[in-house]
Specification:
The protein is of the alpha+beta class and 137 residues long. 31% of the residues lie in helices and 31% in strands.
Length: 137
């Protein structure tokens, strides 16, 4: 039994040291990779009641309305978020690919959000809105 512990003791200690070094290196790298995204994320800003603009083809001049405004949450580096103005965030609904809009009673479309460079969209609520056709006279 004593030979089991003492035989090749130098190699056993070297293997233990090497295993510990590898484990500490991997552990440190994994901690750093978790910290970096949190630092890059920076602060977030939530804009409530952001109006949604309807984008349609130039041939379609109807006055379509959006059923409601949206709430948008954006984030980015601290310097980009400090200089951010509400007017730089735009919510759009694209109707350029929809045909026969005049006969539609209600149409639900996804909301696209445009943000300035360096600012990322985190969430938009609701993600789609109802498009209401103009009233008929």
């Amino acid at each position: 039994m004593r030979d089991l512990l003492i035989k090749d003791l130098g190699w056993k200690l070297f293997s233990l040291f090497l295993a510990l070094t590898i484990w500490l290196t991997v552990h440190k790298i994994s901690e750093e990779s978790e910290i970096i995204p949190a630092m890059e994320a920076g602060p977030t800003v939530t804009i409530e009641g952001l109006p949604v603009t309807v984008v349609s083809s130039t041939a379609d001049v109807h006055d379509f309305r959006v059923g409601r405004a949206v709430t948008v949450t954006v984030g980015g580096p601290a310097e980009a978020m400090t200089n951010l103005e509400t007017g730089q965030i735009r919510a759009l609904v694209d109707l350029t690919d929809v045909t026969n809009l005049a006969n539609a009673k209600t149409l639900t479309r996804p909301v696209a959000v445009l943000t300035p460079e360096g600012v990322s969209l985190i969430s938009v609520t609701p993600s789609s809105v109802d498009i209401l056709p103009p009233p008929r006279h």
